[in-house]
Amino acid sequence: xxxxxxSLLHRHLVAxxxxxxxxxxxxxxxxxxxxxxxxxxxxxxxxxxxLRYLKGKALNAHALTHAHxxxxxxxxxxxxxxxxxxxxxxxxxxxxxxxxATKDYVDQRHLVTRFQQQYWAxxxxxxxxxxxxxxxxxxxxxxxxxxxxxxxxxxxxESDGVLIVGDVMxxxxxxxxxxxxxxxxxxxxxxxxxxxxxIRKLLALDPRTLCFGHGPVLYERGELKRFLxxx
Length: 231
Ligand SMILES: [Zn+2]
Known about the structure:
Elements: E1 12-15, E2 18-22, E3 30-34, E4 37-39, H1 47-54, E5 61-63, H2 69-72, H3 75-82, E6 86-89, H4 93-98, H5 111-120, E7 129-131, E8 136-137, E9 140-144, E10 153-157, E11 162-166, E12 170-172, E13 179-182, H6 192-204, E14 209-212, E15 218-219, H7 223-229
Bound molecules: zinc ion (ZN).
Residues 66, 68, 148, 167, 188 line the site of zinc ion.
């Protein structure tokens, strides 16, 4: 499949050794390169674009915030092409290895669930190492943030407050794509209350730069606290 090149122009350095790789227009789906580790891999439809971003980069590993279809879609291709290991939490391992990325969505018969599994989910790939809270990945500390999915992970770098949020929150209205903080959609979220606890846990880290799975990067000026106060 010929990959679109719309967002090649939008790749940008978020902070030292942190590159934002938008995989859909308006930052609707994102991956990040932190040092030599790719975090998330978009859908299988955006794999060509992802490979173009990564061309010439020294990649040493690929890690997942979680194994939903819009994060693991390109994982197998990336790991195979670059001969790098795949890492995720133990609770995401089965989804990552089977490619059954939507198996824990709350409504299996929903049109969106079926669409994502058929058109976005990539093939499964062997997980070489499972990550736990406190592990170091590309200079970032692993933070367990369950709720959206049971084994969801975020990644935090204390030295400059950069946080890879994953899908604990989105910085976009997924219907009209307008930027702004939101909880992830209920259809794709296993346990909303647990996810809100994870939002609180992330706020307690006092992050300054937030990188989302969906939506633009946010340079924090109190938005997160105001958002949490409304939940
Ligand atoms: Zn998700």
